[in-house]
4-hydroxythreonine-4-phosphate dehydrogenase
Amino acid sequence: MRPVVAVTSGEPAGVGPELCARLAEREWPVRPVVLGDLGLLRERAASSGSAAMFQSWLPDADVPSGTVEVLHLPLARPSRPGVLDAANGPYVLGLLDRAISGCQNGAFAAMVTAPVHKGVICESLGGGDALPFSGHTEYLAEHTGTPRVVMMLVGGGLRVALATTHLPLARVPAAITQPALEETLRIVHADLARHFGIAAPRILVAGLNPHAGEGGHMGREEIDVIEPVLARLRAEGMNLTGPLPADTLFVPHTLAQGDAVLAMYHDQGLPVLKHASFGGGVNVTLGLPIIRTSVDHGTALDLAGSGRADPGSLFAALELAATMLAARAAHAAGAAA
């Protein structure tokens, strides 16, 4: 039997619902089940020219080719393409909650997420200076009781993990502490083995400052924080290279020496990866007790309902979830042998 993977349809005013309809275009090694409002999905499929058929998800049901299975969760209010409505913020979070609970109770083997709009969710929750919703990654960590998770983007032949995620740049240096960096590297190392089938991962670690601090002349974070952590973990047997200057890390010769890169902050590593893979990249949350992958793009409100949105990233996210499930099963079998 194919593993069942929950696919959350995301912000209803964005491209997520119509991208989910396009899952009908392929046969998948897993069984995708789209979480969302069935009427919305049918409406967006029709408006974007999709010929997809829909049926309610029943675990034992046969699914004809060209059909999308749907776990119906109703909108709070009808949604129009490109028009955000805070009334539907709780609906979007409800999709995530249902996917998380399904992964935790065994109904789903993994979850794939279409894009959400952070601003409208925060508005629905009351907003304020402290953002009540800063992103999928943080939400999944909180709702699975995971003290630390790691965001990693996969695409274009690259795997780029982040030491910090959605933080103002001014707060990044203080967030890179020895304990936090050590825990992040342990998570990346463990999940490259567990979910990607890499027995002895090689991780390239970026410095924080230009030229990796230039021996302390452009900042001391490399000397005081990064290098001591790398030394400790190397002594345990981890294959870690760095801290490396970020401006020369992403060249073919250096990348060939690693299986993944750890960048210190969001816009240090992701512009390179998205240049190499935009439209086909995948966001992966490492460290969770469940498998979660996601598209690498936003809600694209200007494209919603037009039929011009590219499903490549959603397709890649579902394919990677399937690959990770297979690698996890093989890893578990090897550990049990």
